[in-house]
Amino acid sequence: MSASQEKIVSDRRRMPLFHGIFPLDQSRIWADLAAGMTLAAVGIPEVMGYTKIIETPVITGLYTMFLPIVAFAIIGSSRHLVVAADSATAVIVATALTSLAAPYSPRYVALTALVALTAGAMLLLARLLRLGFLADFLSRTVLVGFLTGVGIQVALGELNGILGLEKGGHGLLGNLFFTFQHLAETHWLSAVISLCVMAVIVGGNRIADHFPGALLAVVAAIAASFAFHLEKSGVKIVGEVPGGLPHLGLPVVSWNDLPLVLSVSVSCFIVILAQSAATSRAYALRYRDRFDENRDLVGLALANAAAGCSGTFVVNGSPTKTAIVDTAGGRSQLSHLATAAVVLLVLLFLTGPLTYIPNPALSAIVFLIGVKLIDYRGLSEIFKKSQEEFRLAIVTTATVVFIGVEEGILLAVVLSLLQHVHHGYRPHTAVLVRHPDDHWWMDKPVPGKLAEPGVMIYWFGADLYYANANYFAERARALLVDLESPVHWFVLDAGAITAIDYSAGSTLKELHQDLAAKDICLVLAHVNAELRTQLDRHGLTEIIGVNRLFDTLRECLASYHGDPKINPKI
């Protein structure tokens, strides 16, 4: 570690807060502040759009970019991660709570706040138990499929709003069917407003990445709504938006409500854990920054606690908003504090104009958010590289779209764990042979491929445990069937094996007995200290023989050539 890095670590240990800001690079202060203003310009219209997804008052969207973003900036370790409203968690919450209370009602808003508090408590518990590593168990493949399904659901769910139609039917498919049934009743002025907003946003993105097209479109829509009294022409508008700071306090709920939101809170917890960690890690690697997953868990927990106590909904580490700040030149949480300052000014002085926002404008913004979530590039890349993983992604997407978001996240977790188990259950195996240039070469594990006369070297690519022990033994025995040349030593290259459990130990004993019956000696090479300890514990060192355990293949082969049973001339 360099002297400068040691100084940074030392400073961070002395400074328990603001890890995402200090040490402060004074040459980048103005760039960070400008990036924060850019995030505010792009993010404010988006978070107001998220309120259409989660079906809470517009002002709650602004609240997500105030206290929660400040809480993470103070507590979190990542210099880059933006914690605010997120479409994935918004969809999860809305899907679960609409059956418990009327959307937009005080009870509904209180339940969304309770979800944020419960998810925050789970994140804090995960920190206390040091469970940050769990984020690694939601594979990127199924996460791409999950977010793509959420994107499809978000986009299609706004078609009625874009067309100025009422929402009807049950679930996504029911709403779509209802919308198509009533296409003749389309409110054309609402549709025109939606198309104009989308044209401004898409056109702005063509001009420059993260161009504040949504902000310009919303400002123009507000101006048109105010000037032409669009509500009198049948265009629905947001209506009164309360100004001032959010009211601080616990949501008005009872203990009986906690079991009702537990499952949706778990789903949010999983998405927050995986998405936030993946985003933080990506940017930390890009800029060679340090970040602490467990400290970030505390930051995320307190951000959600701040959300729940300020009357808004669950927040998450947002990849899109993090990318906005990064593209604009922000390199620390100072950018995010600048965003919170802009939001504070809006809350205090500019909520009046928000009253005139046409609902079709917000529907158009949400529609484009959904389209952006559809990761067709990621799916295409997965398709090219792994057909099996592509099928997993598509199954996850279809589950989210046709069954439900909570079921989709549950399936994503199960599929990720099955992928992990499969890699250990059916690991790569090979036989080692000498390359003509005297290097070792991993070849397909088929009978007859010897490292040299009388020696077969079998490589197994995972730890040995109860689930793969039989597979290990079956592959080993299959290598010794119908041999044209005799095998005297069967060498297990244990370079990838760091542990064996009781079941695997028993299987190894049985394999040793079977080989001995064929006058073949079982030998282990690349045996590390930990594996030696476990072989001793299972009694395998005594059974196999301490003189048949080697640190390297070179030592193993030298011993083979020096074995008088193999070479009687010695």
Give structural notes.
By secondary structure, the chain is mainly alpha-helical. The chain has 2 domains: 3-421, no CATH class; 429-561, Transcription Regulator spoIIAA (2-Layer Sandwich), CATH 3.30.750.24. It is 60% helix and 5% strand. The protein has helices spanning 3-14, 29-54, 58-63, 67-75, 87-97, 106-128, 140-157, 159-162, 171-181, 188-207, 213-228, 258-286, 293-309, 319-327, 334-349, 351-354, 359-373, 376-385, 387-402, 405-425, 469-478, 502-517, 529-537, 540-544, 553-561; strands spanning 83-84, 316-317, 429-434, 440-443, 455-460, 489-493, 521-525. The protein has a 5-stranded mixed β-sheet, with helices on both faces. It has a two-stranded antiparallel ribbon with strand order 1-2. α18 (376-385) packs antiparallel against α19 (387-402).
The secondary structure category is mainly alpha
- Evaluate the radius of gyration: 30 Å
Give the helix proportion (percent range): 55-70%
Report the major sheet.
Answer: 5 strands, mixed
Unreliable residue runs: 7-12
Q: How many β-strand stretches? A: 7
Number of helices: 25
- Compute the separation of the termini in Å: 52 Å
How much of the sequence is in beta strands? 5-15%
Give the averaged pLDDT, no decimals: 90
Q: State the strand order across the main sheet.
A: 4-3-5-6-7
Global outline: elongated
